[in-house]
Amino acid sequence: MTSASPPPTLQTGAPNNTWIRNLEESIAIPLLKTTLQSIFAQYGTIIDIVAKKNLRAKGQAFIVFDTTEAAEKAIREVQGFSLFEKPMVLQFARSKSDATVKLTGNDEELEAHKRRRVAEKERKQAQELEVQKSLKRAAAAVSVTSAGTPIDGRPAKKAATGLKSTNAAAAPSIPDEYLPPNKVLFLQKLPTDTNQEMLSGLFGRFDGFKEVRMVPGRKGIAFVEYEHQEGAISAKEAMAGAVLVTGTDPIKVTYQRQ
Description:
Blueprint lengths: L16 E5 L7 H12 L5 E5 L10 E5 L2 H11 L3 E2 L2 E2 L1 E4 L5 H7 L2 H37 L40 E5 L7 H8 L5 E6 L7 E5 L2 H11 L12 E4 L3
Antiparallel strand pairs: 1-3, 1-6, 2-3, 4-5, 7-9, 7-10, 8-9
Helix pairs in contact: 4-6
């Protein structure tokens, strides 16, 4: 399989995980994966093909080969090949796939890999939220003068007063696992004899640790606060699912609801 484009400079990354970009977004995922399988199977044994339909993953796919040589050959020979009338862009992926870790490691290493991936996703999410907040603050500062009068000269509308609605349907609850990152962690399923000193020793290892707050009269839960989100993200990555006392259930670590 040849291409009009010159051979690419191979980029470092996960050595057998190939990242494909510039794929036609309108193609159904099952058809896309079947087509990629038929194209890339000639270069080596394919362990996994990952393609998703969510907005961030559209137009992309990952192909995991069993060897670095197979991935390298595929990148060189398929680079720029037209698929569904769009030239594919290939390079080594930046990180290992779950399939690669599962193949080369044990269950513990796979779970650690998944936690690191989630933590990295949460770091990016926190950064994006900060950017959005900054843009909103800048827009508000531009639209209102120092006297509080809008630039167009019209009087500002008064904010509506009254109690906020407590209707659950008006404000659907987000599952704990999908709460956005913040500086406070919410711990659940703690062993009965867990105390503040024990938790401070465990969670105080992470940068920016501030305090542990136990809940009077409530067993099994606590809050851990950090100076910044990065510390909370690192602590959640390391401690989620940890077993504090032999014979007890793994603890649950999520972010506090804001």
